[in-house]
Specification:
The chain is of the alpha/beta class and 337 residues long. It contains ten helices and 15 strands. The chain folds into two domains: 153 residues, Quinone Oxidoreductase, Chain A, domain 1 (Alpha-Beta Complex); 150 residues, NAD(P)-binding Rossmann-like Domain (Rossmann fold), CATH 3.40.50.720. Bound molecules: NADP nicotinamide-adenine-dinucleotide phosphate (NAP). The site of NADP nicotinamide-adenine-dinucleotide phosphate (NAP) has 31 residues, from helix 1, helix 2, helix 3 and helix 10.
Length: 337
């Protein structure tokens, strides 16, 4: 057990890619707990594209992280001391750990106890059984309302949200086409996850390949990327198409907002609907989704995959792996056993 609490505090707002030097790595005493609180040792941090957005000074769905504050992040950890009826020593929990070794669970910063005895690594509670898996679940079932026979196109398909979204759409009987960077990711989607087709958007002539992969057009677009990728999908929409707008990662490192898709008017001619959504709005329904995803995993219908990097001190620059496409499935940082 670490003798101190190492914490990463935001020092300067990054310009473009994140640098380790944008953060101060400080060592503080392990916090004391009061009645009603529990001390949690963080084991895995969740690296999410939205972390990059929280570092900018632009108000969003959560306030920007302030200079000098510990970097906000999801994570899982173990309760190492408790003066609360809610948390038991040794229990696995998830919540907003922040980029630090220890965090105090309290009424104002609650954590969710996780089920024990499932045959999955702790990191899966940040992947298919965590916020990214839940985002995929509600985006596919509630926002896009995918049904049997739909052609569903998913961008960033080999990432945390995309890989789970595609598998759920398959389970619901859709024809699923993934868009991802590189032949290895595309092979994984088709050979391992059962996607019907995958298109490598980094390969020459990919838009022709995408057309071939969607001979009957696109009924549902689960959009994670934006930019040129989204524009290509908008060019293939069927009448009445639904777009579940989950994220626009291609612009998160840019100082200026992009001008948007040039073929936006296709939404008019195709009578398409776009719905943005946030997983925060679905918190009350988490047990339903976790139960269903866990059941699909136990039946062998859905896989969770994580890319694990190590070391709290490497966390800031590891975030860039998401923007370089170096992760397959969920990207996590292991900071303790
Ligand atoms: N609405 C919500 O509540 C919610 C919740 C969670 C996540 N999200 C959003 O969901 C999206 C996926 O998040 P995630 O956590 O699952 O990340 P992820 O997909 O695991 O990682 C990001 C992936 O995006 C791709 N990418 C990065 N830059 C790109 C670019 N310029 N053009 C095309 N592809 C690019 C990379 O894959 P390639 O190798 O294929 O390029 C990378 O692996 C993000 O937009 C995120 O903001 C939304």
């Amino acid at each position: 057990m670490s003798e101190v609490n190492r914490r990463l505090l935001l020092k300067t707002r990054p310009e473009g890619r994140v640098k380790n030097s944008d953060f101060d790595l400080v060592e503080e005493a392990i916090p004391e707990i009061s009645d009603g609180e529990a001390l949690i040792r963080t084991t895995y941090l969740s690296l999410d594209p939205t972390n990059r957005v929280w570092m900018t000074d632009v108000p969003g769905y959560l306030p920007p992280v302030q200079i000098g504050e510990v970097m906000r992040s999801g994570g899982v950890g173990r309760v190492v001391a408790s003066k609360s009826d809610t948390y038991k020593e040794g229990q696995l929990v998830n919540g907003f750990t922040g980029w630090q070794d220890y965090v105090v669970a309290s009424d104002s910063l609650p954590f969710t106890p996780l089920p024990e005895g499932m045959d999955v690594p702790d990191s899966a509670f940040l992947g298919a059984l965590g916020m990214t898996g839940l985002t995929a679940y509600f985006g596919i079932t509630d926002v896009a309302k995918v049904k049997e026979g739909d052609t569903v196109v998913i961008s960033a398909a080999a990432g945390a949200v995309g890989s789970v979204a595609g598998q759920i759409a398959k389970i619901l009987g859709a024809r699923v086409v993934g868009i991802a960077g590189g032949p290895d990711k595309c092979a994984w989607l088709v050979d391992e996850l059962g996607f019907d087709a995958a298109v490598d958007y980094k390969a020459e002539g990919w838009k022709d390949k995408f057309k071939e992969a969607t001979p009957n057009g696109v009924d549902v677009n689960f959009e994670n990327v934006g930019g040129e990728v989204m524009e290509a999908v908008f060019g293939r929409l069927n009448i009445g198409a639904r777009i579940a707008l989950c994220g626009l990662i291609s612009g998160y490192n840019d100082a200026e907002a992009s001008t948007g898709p040039r073929n936006f008017s296709n939404l008019i001619t195709r009578r398409a609907s776009v719905q943005g959504f946030l997983i925060l709005d679905y918190f009350a329904r988490i047990p339903e989704a976790v139960g269903q995803i866990a059941a699909w995993m136990a039946e062998g219908k859905l896989q969770s995959r994580e890319t694990v990097v190590e070391g709290l001190e490497n966390t800031p620059e590891s975030l860039n792996l998401l923007f370089d496409g170096k992760n397959t499935g969920k990207l996590v940082v292991k900071i303790a056993d």
